[in-house]
Amino acid sequence: MVRIRTNFSTPFDSRLPWMAGSCWALAFAALGLGLLLVFNMIRLGKEVPDLQKAWALAQQTPEARPLEGSLVSTQEREALRRRLKKINGLDAGKGWAVPALLSRLERAMPPGVRLVSLQQDTILGQAQLVVESAHLEDLTRLLASLEKDQAFQEVELVKQAQAKDGEQGRIQFFLNLQEGTP
What we know:
Blueprint: H1 12-60, H2 74-89, H3 98-108, E1 114-121, E2 126-133, H4 136-148, E3 152-162, E4 171-179
C-alpha cells in the first residue's frame, strides 16, 4: 500500500492530541467551577442562621427616640424659621420659563412665519424676538394675534427690515414683548 501525502490539508490524526488536551482542560475547568459553586452554596447556607439571628436581634431593639432636650434654643429656632421664610419668598423673576414662552409663541405664529432669534429677560419679564416671513400679511397676523393674547401686556414693533441672508423677499419684524399673566 502506498501513502501519498499532499500539502492541501493537515491530516486529522495530527490534530488529535490538541483536541484531546483541549477537552481535558475544559473538563477540569468545569469540575473546578462546579466545586467552587458547591463550596459557595455551603458557605451561604451557614450564613443564613446568622442572618436570622441578626434579624431577630434587630426586631427586639427599641426604636430610636428623639432627644428630650433640644440642641437649638427657641430663639435660634425662630430666627431660622424667619430666614427660611424669607428665602422661600424670594422670586427668581416675573418672566415665564423659556419652554412656556416658546409654546405660547408657537400657538400664535401663522404658517410661513419662523422665529429667527429670541432674547428673554426673566427678571423684568421682557422678551425681544425677530421673526421673518416671505409675506407681510403673515407677520401682520402674528402681530395682531400677539396683541390679542392676554399673556402679553405690551407688544411693540421696533423695526421692520429685509432679511440680511440674501434671500429675496424675506421680511423681518423686530418685536419687544412685555410678558403678562398666562
